[in-house]
From TrEMBL, chain A:
This is Transketolase. PANTHER family: TRANSKETOLASE, TRANSKETOLASE N-TERMINAL SECTION-RELATED. Residues 29-269 form the Transketolase N-terminal domain. Signal peptide: none annotated. It comes from the Bacteria.
TrEMBL record, chain B:
It comes from Hymenobacter nivis. GO terms for cellular component: cytosol. It is an enzyme of class 2 (transferase). Pfam families: Transket_pyr, Transketolase_C. GO terms for molecular function: 1-deoxy-D-xylulose-5-phosphate synthase activity; metal ion binding. This is 1-deoxy-D-xylulose-5-phosphate synthase. Residues 1-162 form the Transketolase-like pyrimidine-binding domain. Its EC number is 2.2.1.7.
């Protein structure tokens, strides 16, 4: 990936993070979990998936299912920046005149299916991948799960079934931000060694830094990892990424900041990103 | 024609139809060879079965899913409610050995709250055929409908020749002035016997095969209530949440009351055994039902002496 491309994606991710911070008030949202997967979603929608605002219903589009639905601010922030929805629509967060709330709603263009209850969309995605294979289509089906979500037995049912069906068009992405709702994963239900777990279940595995666009490109660009196995990409991420004051904190899962705090957090966000962005990309924003 | 032949014929004519199972193949053993990749067995994974059926339905397919009634409605309940229900997807649930039909399996396998659970899901339709003929008549309409559907599979051979099926309409087998039995599913055959026994005692006995529990045929229920006489709700289901509750809801909604005798499983699972043993022990043979109704009518139950022969269930799993 060129450095220009990386800068472009970083600038986009910064704008998505601004949306997440702005949604973290007046009722709040799941800020930490949204910030951890912002780079992943930005990369997928801006640079990888065969889907655009004009093709949200195209039969040959790629399918992305957000199973950890509580990070929907990252998805909607990405949608707002890429033209899937008008940015003003985010102002309807938690208002009864729209369907913008703490989990995804399918009436929003680009949302393939509602989620919120963990452990559901791996199986729904499995059904879509089975259908695409039945039709002989090359569409990719990608399901993003949290790492805490891997506590759910239904995820492992689907992991078994997808391997049994040799579903190479099916990809699971784990946003490995190392936290469940309230506790570090390894302090509650340890997941490591996570890659070997998936390998033992018959999956092809890559593990990367989920905030590094070059690594994201290298991993997703290599899909499918196998012609006879489903693929999983474990993205090591940081909960709250971009805001050091809340990064990797067990008590920053759901946040409802005051408007003054939001102003401070936006400053903090920019002070972080400024160190890695050129003045030119900042001006573009 | 049997269930397997019907679904095979339907699937061969319509490639939207996908036959799915969580390794419950009792009714569909010959279909893998016929349908190839449109036969999907997810193994013993009811949650993934329903979730992936929802995914297939999202893509325009009509998945017909097969598993034991208890495991579908209980283990996978949230997937039915959240993926199929909120999604309003045309997933068709063929629920195997519901109610008394799990006879010897024991309480783990007794789906006797399934009607209560399924009808609580917005948009879900719920059906309980009286016998195989009744079921085969309703399935084509159920599979063709855009709604999610739950069907209490019943492959028992009946003796009654049914009227044509109409979605949302009950089948009025007979009207009566002393008592009307409202029934659904496999107990229909016992209700027919009970009716004969009571008629032999000089009672005028109505009988309604409910067929569709949701949307319920409110007009027929009101007709029965307004005709006066005792109303019996007969079901292999917990007394809470099934037909007795449905009738109560309809009565309240219409500011009516009635003299009702619920014959159901009241706060208990049933004693497992051969079907004949179950019905005898729990008081659900035609004879027992007639006696319970006679007693409620103030007649002499001991006068009903003809013991009911129960045809055993043919499925073990």
């Amino acid at each position: 990936m060129t450095s220009e491309k990386q800068d472009e994606l970083k600038a986009l991710a910064l704008r998505v993070r601004e949306h997440i911070v702005r949604l973290s008030t007046d009722g709040g949202c799941f800020t930490g979990a949204s910030l951890s997967c912002a780079d992943l979603l930005v990369y997928l929608y801006a640079d990888f998936l065969n889907i655009s605002p004009a093709t949200v219903n195209a039969p040959d589009r790629d399918f992305l299912f957000l199973s950890k639905g509580h990070d929907v601010p990252a998805l909607y922030g990405t949608f707002a920046e890429l033209g899937f929805m008008p940015k003003e629509r985010l102002a309807n967060h938690l208002k009864s005149n729209d369907s913008i709330y703490w989990h995804p709603n399918r009436s929003v263009p680009g949302v393939e299916f509602h989620s919120g209850s963990l452990g559901h969309l791996p199986s729904v995605g499995l059904g879509v991948a089975l259908d695409n294979r039945l039709r002989g289509l090359k569409n990719r089906t990608i399901v993003i799960t949290g790492d805490g979500e891997l506590n759910e037995g239904s995820v492992w049912e689907t992991v078994l079934v997808a391997a049994a069906h040799k579903l190479s068009n099916f990809t699971l992405v784990v946003d490995r931000n190392h936290f469940q709702a309230n506790v570090a994963t390894e302090d509650l239900i340890p997941l490591e060694p996570l890659g070997p777990k998936f390998e033992a279940f018959g999956w092809a595995v890559q593990r990367i830094d989920g905030h590094d666009f070059a690594q994201l490109e290298a991993a997703f660009g290599a899909l499918p990892f196998s012609d006879t196995k489903p693929s999983v990409i474990i993205c090591d991420t940081v909960r709250g990424r971009g805001l050091p004051s809340i990064e990797a904190r067990a008590d920053r899962w759901f946040c409802n900041f005051s408007s003054d705090e939001v102003v401070e957090l936006l400053k903090e966000l920019h002070s972080q990103e400024a160190t890695t962005l050129t003045s030119e990309t900042l001006t573009v924003r | 024609m049997n269930y397997e032949e019907l679904i095979k014929e339907t699937a061969l004519a319509d490639d939207r139809l996908i036959v799915m199972t969580a390794e419950n193949r009792a009714l569909i053993r010959n279909l893998p060879a016929v349908l190839g990749p449109r036969f999907i067995d997810t193994g013993i994974t009811e949650q993934t079965l329903i979730g992936s059926a929802a995914g297939l339905a999202l893509r325009g397919r009509i998945p017909v899913v097969h598993a034991l009634a208890t495991f579908l409605t209980l283990r996978a309940f949230e997937f039915i409610r959240t993926d199929v229900g909120i999604g309003q997807l045309p997933v068709k649930i063929s629920s195997f050995v519901p109610g008394f039909l799990s006879d010897g399996n024991g309480p783990t396998h007794q789906a006797i709250e399934d009607v209560a659970l399924m009808r609580g899901i917005p948009g879900m339709t719920v059906f309980a055929p009286a016998d195989e003929e009744d079921m085969l008549a309703m399935l084509p309409q159920i599979w063709a409908s855009p709604s999610p559907a739950y069907v209490r599979i019943n492959t028992r051979k009946g003796t009654y020749s049914h009227a044509p099926f109409e979605m949302g309409k009950a089948e009025v087998v007979a009207t009566g002035t002393d008592v009307t039995i409202l029934v659904y599913g496999m107990l229909f055959e016992q209700a027919l016997i009970a009716r004969e026994l009571l008629e032999a005692q000089g009672k005028s006995v109505g009988l309604v095969n409910m067929r569709t529990l949701k949307p319920v045929d409110e007009a027929t229920l009101l007709q029965v209530v307004r005709a006066g006489g005792l109303v019996v709700t007969l079901e292999d289901h917990f007394q809470t949440g099934g037909l007795y509750s449905i009738l109560a809801e309809v009565l309240l909604k219409n500011e009516l009351t009635a003299k009702v005798l619920p014959i159901a499983l009241n706060e208990k699972w049933y004693k497992p055994g051969l079907l004949s043993e179950v019905l005898e022990y729990e008081g659900f043979t035609g004879q027992h039902i007639a006696q319970r109704i006679a007693e409620k009518l103030g007649a002499n139950p001991a006068a009903i002496t003809t013991k009911t022969e129960v045809v055993e269930n043919q499925f073990a799993e």
